[in-house]
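[Meeting: bench + compute handoff]

Bench side (C.D.) handed over the final construct sequence. Compute side (W.E.) agreed to return the predicted structure before the next meeting so the bench team could plan truncations. Sequence as handed over:
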Amino acid sequence: MPTSCHAWVTQDLLTKFLPACVIIMDNATFYKRQGVKTAFANAGYTLKYLLSYSPDFNDIETEKSYQGTTPRQNVLFHKHFG
């Protein structure tokens, strides 16, 4: 098992994609290191990143905000999002 992100990308991950794929990664800093970017580019893949995180677009964050509300409000929320 590779011990670094670069080793994991080059030894494991890149071997599993079809040629000329677009790879979408999250915004973790180790995915943005030049060595990782270069490995994807040299393998012929296009690397794209997700948009920055926003709690406004995450249902889990919305649900957490309702934890302090009354039980009746929680039931209505779960019927809507559950």
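W.E. noted at the follow-up: Residues 1-50 form one domain. C.D. will use this when planning the next construct.
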